[in-house]
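re: ur question from yesterday

yeah so i grabbed the chain u mentioned. its 637 aa long if i counted rite. heres the sequnce exactly as i have it in my notes:
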Amino acid sequence: LSNEAACLNRPKFSFKSKGRVNELRGENEVLESIGAFAVAGLPQITNIFISENAELASIGAFAFSDLPELTEMTITKSKHLRHIHPDAFRNIVKLRVLIISNTGLRMFPDFTKIHSTAPDFLFGLQENSHIERVPVNAFRGLCTQTISEIRLTRNGIKEVASDAFNGTKMHRLRLSGNQQLTHINPNAFVGSSELVVLDISHTALSSLPENILGGLQKLMAESVFRLKELPPLQLFNKLQEVHLTYPSHCCAFHNVHRNRSSWNALLCSHPDAPGMPNFYKDHCSNSTAIICTPTQDEFNPCEDIMSAVPLRILIWIISILALLGNAAVLLVLLGSRCKLTVPRFLMCHLAFSDLCMGIYLVVIATVDIVTRGRYYNHAIDWQTGPGCSAAGFFTVFASELSVFTLTAITLERWYTIKHALRLDRKLRLRHACIVMTAGWIFSSLAALLPTVGVSSYGKVSICLPMDVESLVSQVFVVSLLLLNILAFFCVCGCYLSIYLTVRNPSSAPAHADTSVAQRMAVLIFTDFVCMAPISFFAVSAALKLPLITVSEAKILLVFFYPINSCSNPFLYAFSNRTFRRDFFLLSARFGLFKTRAQIYRAESSTCQQPTWISPKSSHVMLYSLANALSPDGKHEG
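ran it thru and got these structure tokens back, copy pasting raw so excuse formatting
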């Protein structure tokens, strides 16, 4: 205790006056409690400061009552202070600062009998980890004037009850640091007024109390990771500054400013508008732009998933083509009564991988439609949720398995043509099973790595692994791209070798060579169109030298990324006569295309050929050349 108030240290403690005292300080005292009328007889006291009283356990009734000149009171660093009597604070009419911090209080104290009339009251109940609830009418009677700030920071508060701020006029409310605060009753602010600043940073809230948003001018909600959806934007009538957790939410407030300006254009142009100062300032001034942080980064611009209407239309067209085309190929291959050969087996895997790509595109297109115009409110749930991870897994798995299978098909055709006369060198189905098992393992691992921290699917709205912040992620992304480029050159080399093998000017007409070259040119061109732009821009981005924005990358996603998935069914299957035969024969089993099926049955009633072959393998062309060279004119099989 200070020299101005010499008191004895004893278990039950009370302050006694000695002359004119303005300030009482009790620091490092061995106090068990502060009893009734502890400061009786000190009417002139203006400040009370109690700190670091390790034994202080309670404050009794009327301990601080009827102190007409007291303006500031602080009780802090008293870890064992667990109880303050409801009548401990009474009739302190000039009190303008009350701070209680770092104590062991178990319940929210009663401050309703203070009845301060001081303006700009500052109240702080901070760092009391055992206080879990703000009760009903917690501040009613605290101050008859407007409270400048209520600080309820870094407590253990889990809930704010209904009518908690009833009868309270306050400018600023700070609830930051209550990491267990999950619920503010919708009626918590009923009966309160004048709140312009709300701070709920570092809490576990998932929603905002809507009935006080209309008057807010500043909102702070940093590190509130469960707050993923904002209330209707029209509730924020006066908001000027907002600090949030997620960059996507700031997009909402950019739109609010833009929409507000458009909506008020007609009213503000009215000749009487400048004569209404409040209206003109709030709705017509050029300074109404809302300050919002954090701002969007280059990976998440303020736009929908599909930012342009043409992209939104095209992604549906392409995804439907990929789904229908590859589903049809799978049905025909699996439903055909012909023998399952190596090419058929490989084509099943190619169709399945391209079907997965179609599923990915449909998922992205569907989420885009559902969140259109409000993506800022769904961005976090989507990009951090299982949906985006699943979509990303589908697309990486599909892309890698498709590239792997295309390479396997090309190598199989090259090997078969190179060793056409060596039956002992023929590839068997068991060999293809081993190869494709390796392909599935590789594709699955490549798709799983971003889900365990090697890159991330949640970096962008289209759920591609574009996170290259760490060295491991960068190596992973670049390695995948380089493997795809290597596979492309492998396919090109095999096609060139096949062309040189089947090209025989002495025995084949010139138009046969032209046909071979044209087909291969088409197939290599489709691979190149799919691979080149994606690889070029992706490698530059992976090396942290991006040449295009995410918005522009979405054009690549729609126009180039799924080209193979859409074209493979047509280049590998629908353009092939044998596939068309199998298709119509299968359809006839369900009562469709019976006449067309009869024509094919008449031409070939059995499946003597070991397989139907895609033009991309050049197998049909090899058989044609073999037939031309055969003395009896029959296919060798």
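noticed a couple things. The chain has a mean pLDDT of 81. also The chain has 15 helices and 20 strands.
anyway ttyl
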